[in-house]
Amino acid sequence: MRGLKRSSGKRLSPLAGKDSVFFDLDGVIYRGPDAIDFAVESINQISLPVAYLTNNASRTPEQVAHQLAGYGLQLRPEDVVTSPQAATTLLASMIPAASTVLVVGGEGLLQEVSQAGFVITDSADDEPVAVVQGFSPEVGWSQLAEASFALQRDPSVLWLATNTDWTIPVQRGVAPGNGALVSAVHLAVGRLATFAGKPERAMFDVAADRLQVSAPLMVGDRLDTDIKGARAAGMSSAVVLTGIDQAKQILAAGDDQRPDYILDDLRQLHQPYPDIVRSVDADEVHTVEVGKAVVRRKGHVVRVARAGEAIDLLRAGAACIYDSGLKIFGLDVDPQLYEGA
Q1: What angle do helix axes 107-115 and 83-92 make, rounded to 10 degrees?
Q2: What structural domains and CATH numbers belong to the chain?
Q3: pLDDT for the residue numbered 5
Q4: What DSSP designation does 225 have?
């Protein structure tokens, strides 16, 4: 069973044994216009190749690299992997070269589709053979309507979306993401889109091919995109508690969304990750210890025996729940494990 498994012995950092690190952006490196505490200095300390993976399709790699460099990160535009890049890679394998494509999205998506040699239109009347949809703050009803008209006109029209993110974290809070906009078109046309960005593995394959690596660590704040995608691609993953998903979501994660590491912030990439020590007594009480935190399970009841540090308590609780083989709704979980989340 994968997810939060650590062998006893010398404690190693999450970077041990990896040949590269992939970072999500929103909620990991920045939130809104501001860098997240400790993120930049922690990334600049990494001696491995680094790639930055973003599902946000509104900007070009050059624009993303410029923003990240403004925080103090050392990178090139080639180090940025975007969902439009994954989408155009898929698109090229699915429709003829130089086909007409209706694009709903921002400059980042428009640039990639154009550079791939396709003819771009914003009108269903031009009879596009595909609709490609990505996030941009400027996307409104008119663009979504044109996509709907094109998809209704001919069932053979390909519908490709850059990503499924339902939400996006911004400075003022959490706002609707591309998944919400794609859902609006879905409700109008009764069709499902094909997706290219996280959690689909196309984006992870693009990053691995570009860096020529085989054992990366994916670091993200969302279980349903960053962690699920990494697991589908056979990569190790770490969830950091500076963005969207918090204790409740981590404890309830399904098999395909469970991280290998849980981090408070990116400083813990460089720190020894604690052993997760498991034991079972004669009464079938399952005990998990992480640092000074102790969590026990008997049957479907999960209780905190000793709290210890908050992050270690979450790690112990997650391991105890994951080991049970039971769905979260089948367990009686101590609220102390997710209080304040």
Answers
A1: 30
A2: 20-55+199-269 (3.40.50.1000), 84-195 (3.40.50.1000), 277-336 (no CATH)
A3: 52
A4: I
What b-and-e string marks burial along 74-89, b requiring 16 or more CB atoms within 10 Å of the CB? ebeeebbbbbbbbbbb
Contact present, 162 and 83 (Cβ < 8 Å)? yes
**CB neighbours of residue 291 within 10 Å:** 17
Mean pLDDT, residues 179-201: 94
pLDDT at residue 341, as a whole number: 52
Structural tokens at position 116 = 């791939």
What per-residue confidence (pLDDT) applies to 172? 87
H helices of the chain, where? 39-44, 61-71, 83-92, 107-115, 141-153, 178-189, 201-211, 228-232, 247-251, 310-324
Q: Which of 317, 319, 320 is nearest to 299 (CA)?
A: 320
User: Could you tell me the CA-to-CA distances from 328 to 31, 127, 162, 250, 300 in Å, in that order?
Assistant: 30, 48, 31, 11, 10
- The β-bridge partners of 296 are 287, 303
Q: What per-residue confidence (pLDDT) applies to 337?
A: 97
CA–CA separation, 131 and 121 (whole Å):
10
Query: pLDDT tens, 88-143?
Result: 999 999 999 999 999 999 999 999 999 999 999 999 999 999 999 999 999 999 99
32 or 251, greater pLDDT: 251
The verdict on whether 24 is a catalytic residue reads yes
The 3-state DSSP class for residue 46 equals coil
The DSSP annotation for 84-114 comes to: HHHHHHHHHTTS-TT-EEEEES-HHHHHHHH
Given 24, 165, 221, 312, which residue is catalytic? 24
Q: Token pair 């025996």 is at which residue? A: 305
DSSP letter assigned to residue 319:
H
Phi, psi of 12 (to 5 degrees): -115, 155
Catalytic residue among 19, 26, 126, 332: 26
Closest CA to 87 of 66, 64, 100, 103: 103
Cα separation of 294 and 278, whole Å? 10
Longest dimension (CA), the chain: 72
